[in-house]
Design goal:
- The structure is a single chain.
- This protein has helices at about 1-20, 25-50, 55-70, 75-90, 100-115, 115-130, 130-150, 160-175, 190-210, 220-239.
- It is mainly α.
- The chain has one domain (about 1-239).
- α3 packs across α9 (about 190-210), α3 packs across α10 (about 220-239) and α6 crosses α8 (about 160-175).
């Protein structure tokens, strides 16, 4: 789990610097930074979604995942955690400026944990001890945390809890499963469709950051697990 701890350290460092800088920035500059993040998030999500080799898999996964997420109330759970953190750590009078801990926690938890580097890097870290992919992700997340910290505030730092549970859990699972996952790479069809599905979710985050549409992105999280399962099932049927 070395890669996960490196990732957590990078997010804490970048996020802390961003929070300290953001507190000194005028509201107009923070709004501009937020708009820039929203636009770049749309670009990232689009590039990931367009990698799909079968858009029907992505569409079906997103629709089924959304139904399951609404049923399981995942977004409500994430929001509840964010509100608990907010009650404990939010300074009075800060949330109105768009620096709500709940919003920052939910948004950055999704951004930092959706993507091929998260899954492949965590598997390699747990399976072989190779943490280089997660080290690369850590550098990217550190800079993103700096920008998010400046615009969203303290809640960005709490996304490290999600990173610890999600990435750490994947690494531990890979460690116990061993050789069954040795063939998993970023070019594996299941990972490609999972990444494309994650791209759709990131597009939703971009719309949220730009205040264009309130989408309960957290409720679509099951889609990320459904997409690779569909690919595996289709591959077995094809054989």
């Amino acid at each position: 789990m070395i890669g996960t701890f490196i990732n957590i350290g990078a997010v804490l460092l970048g996020g802390t610097i961003g929070v300290l800088l953001g507190a000194r920035l005028p509201d107009k500059i923070r709004d501009t930074v937020m708009s820039g993040l929203g636009l770049m998030t749309l670009v990232l999500g689009s590039s990931m979604a367009l990698q799909s080799q079968n858009v029907l898999i992505v569409m079906g996964s997103v629709l089924l995942g959304g139904v399951l997420g609404e049923w399981w109330r995942i977004e409500e759970g994430l929001t509840a955690i964010g509100r608990w953190l907010e009650r404990r750590f939010q300074r009075p009078g800060v949330a109105h400026a768009g620096r709500s801990i709940t919003r920052a926690f939910v948004t950055t938890s999704l951004v930092f944990c959706v993507g091929p580097l998260t899954v492949v890097g965590s598997i390699l870290d747990g399976l072989t001890g190779n943490y280089e992919p997660l080290a690369l992700k850590s550098m990217l997340d550190g800079f993103a945390a700096l920008a998010f910290g400046a615009s969203l505030g303290l809640g960005v730092l709490f996304s490290t809890l999600t990173i610890l549970v999600y990435q750490g859990g994947l690494s531990l699972l890979a460690h116990f499963l061993g050789a069954n996952l040795i063939a998993v790479t970023a070019e594996t069809p299941a990972v490609i469709e999972m990444s494309a599905t994650g791209g759709v979710l990131i597009l939703g985050i971009g719309l949220l950051l730009l205040d264009l549409k309130h989408i309960r992105v957290g409720n679509f999280l099951p889609a990320i697990a459904i997409a690779p399962l569909v690919v595996v099932v289709l591959e077995q049927i094809g054989r």
